[in-house]
Amino acid sequence: MSPVRLPDPEQLAERIRRGERAAVASGLNLLDNKLDEARQGAARLLAALAGEHGLSAGHLIGITGPPGAGKSSLLAAMIRKWRQSERTVGVLAVDPSSRPEAGGGALLGDRIRIKNTAHDEGLFIRSLANRSQLGGVASEVWPMSWLMLACFDIVVIETVGVGQTEIDIAEIGDTVCYVAQPASGDTIQYLKSGIIEIPDIFAVNKADLGAPARKTAGELTRASSRQDRRADWDYPVCLVSANDHSGIQPLLAHVDRHRRFLIDGGLFDELRARHQRAWVVRLLKDEFGTFGLGLLGGAAGVDAWLQARPSNQFAGYVQLRKHILSKFLSANHQSSLTTKEHVNEQAIV
Ligand SMILES: Nc1nc2c(ncn2[C@@H]2O[C@H](COP(=O)(O)OP(=O)(O)OP(=O)(O)O)[C@@H](O)[C@H]2O)c(=O)[nH]1
Ligand SMILES: [Mg+2]
Hints:
With 349 residues, the protein is an alpha/beta fold. Helices cover 48% and strands 11% of the residues. The protein has 13 helices and 9 strands. Guanosine-5'-triphosphate binds at residues 67-73, 95, 99, 102, 160, 205-206, 208-209, 241-243.
C-alpha cells in the first residue's frame, strides 16, 4: 500500500485562514482521519489555527431539537438573512444516521435553494450524516467546528436530539438555540425533569400554525423560568416560522445579543477554553482509554494541566498525546502528570 499523503498542517492552516474552500475541505478531512499519522497532523493543524491567541473569533452556534421540529428549514432561513448582510457562514449538519435519505447538507442546500453551495463563496456546508452517535455528538465535530471558525463569521452545528446530544452541543457552542415543535409536550417534560439544560435561546418554530405554537411558547417560558438560570441572561423564547419567515430577524438579534452578552461579561474566552479542554480530555480518552488518561492523572489532571497553559489548548493536546505515546512505548507507567516537568516542553514537532 502506498503511504497516505497528508497535507502539511501549517501550510494548510494558512490557506484555511485565507478562506480557501479547498483547504477547508481538506482540513476537515484531516480532522476526520483516524490514521495515526493523521491524528498528529490534525493536532498540529488545530494548534496552528489557534495560534497564540486561541480561537477567539467568530460565533459558534448549536442548533438542536427533536426530529422534524424544522431545524434545517429554520437554519436555511437564518442563513439567507446572514448572507444578505454579508456574513460568511459555515455549517456542520449532523443529521441522524437512521435517516440517510435526508442527506444532511444536501437537504439543507435544497432548503436554501442553492443546489451547489460552491456558487456562494461565503457559505460552506459539510454534512456529517452519520455522526450523531447514540448518546452524544461524535468527537470530531468539535475540532471541525473550530476549524471553520478560523474562516467563517458564523459557524452552525445542526444536531438532532435531546438528552446527551443537547448536553454535548452545549459543550461545543457559544450559543445554543433549541428548536421546539409546537404542541409537543416533550421538550417541556425534558426541561422539567432536567434531562435538558435550558438552552440560551428557544425558537418555537411553525408559528404559522397559530395557537399551538403560541401555547408551546408560553409553556416554555414558564417551564424555563422555574429552573436554575443565569440571573443576567433572559433566555428568550422566540416564535418563528421557517415557512413564512416571521420572527427570523428577532431570533438573529437574540443570537447576536447572546454573543455580546458573553463578551461583555468576560465569559466568552473562558467558555471557549473550557470547551476546548473538555474536548482534549474526551479525545485522549477516545484514543487511549481510561488507562491512557490515567497516565496523565486522569481527566482532572489533564484539565488542570491545560488550564495552567496559555490559550492554545491544541498545542497542549499535541504534547499530551506524545507524552502518553512515549509512556506506552517505554512501558514506564509510574509517574502521573502532576508537574510540568513530566511533559516534553519542546516545540511542537
Ligand atoms: N408549517 C410549518 N412547517 C414547517 C416549518 N418549518 C419546517 N416545517 C416542516 O417540518 C418538517 C421538518 O422540517 P425539517 O427542517 O426537515 O426539520 P428538522 O428538524 O431539520 O428535521 P430532522 O433534521 O430530520 O430532525 C418539514 O416537512 C418542513 O416542511 C414551518 O415554519 N411551518
Ligand atoms: Mg434537519
